[in-house]
Amino acid sequence: MVRIAVRLWIVAAAVQLASSVLALIDVRQGVVAEVAQRFPAESAVAQERVVVAVLALLLGAGLLIAALELGLVVALNRGKRWALAASVVLAGVVAVTAVVGPVHLVVASGIPVVAVVVSFLPAARAWFGGGEK
Questions:
Q1: Which pLDDT tens digit goes with each residue over 15-34?
Q2: Between the N and C ends of the chain, which has fewer C-beta atoms within 10 Å?
């Protein structure tokens, strides 16, 4: 069961990366229009810098979540007990970002939730009960 949860977290990380890229494609035009509307007196170069900064922040957040998911994979695979609690928190963070984000992030958030459920099944719990691995 732990192997299934680990694989689900790996898939979740890959989907998170893909979703981050899709989110950038989806929101780029909206960000450009919003910056042009809010800062009409600024030069085109300054507006473009703001757009790039916003998009980099969005991409960075997606990369950070994917990196945390992959780090969690390593800890779960080693049988670290704290990784169970961390998986619940991380799945919650991903679920919250999906609520405020684009529709494809809902799919990305469902995978970690399933991975958490699988991690708490009795067969998987035995993996974590045997001490440090």
A1: 888 877 887 887 888 888 88
A2: C
Residue 28: in which H helix or E strand, if any?
helix 2-38
What parts of the chain have a pLDDT lower than 50?
131-133
User: Angle CA(73)–CA(118)–CA(122) in degrees, nearest 5?
Assistant: 115
Q: Distance of CA 3 to CAs 78, 123, 124, Å?
A: 11, 11, 9
For the entire predicted model, the pTM comes to: 0.72
Contact 66, 20 (CB under 8 A): yes
62 sits in the region (left: phi over 0; alpha: psi -120 to 50; else beta) called: alpha
Q: Look at the block and give the residue holding tokens 């969690």.
A: 72
Could you give the CA distance from residue 93 to residue 66 in angstroms, rounded to a whole number? 12
Which letter does DSSP use for residue 85 in this model?
H
Distance CA(27)–CA(56), nearest Å, equals 12
Query: Cα separations (Å) of 62 from 21, 26, 92, 98, 99?
Result: 9, 14, 15, 11, 15
- Predicted local distance difference test score (pLDDT) of residue 49: 92
Residue pointed to by tokens 């405020």: 100
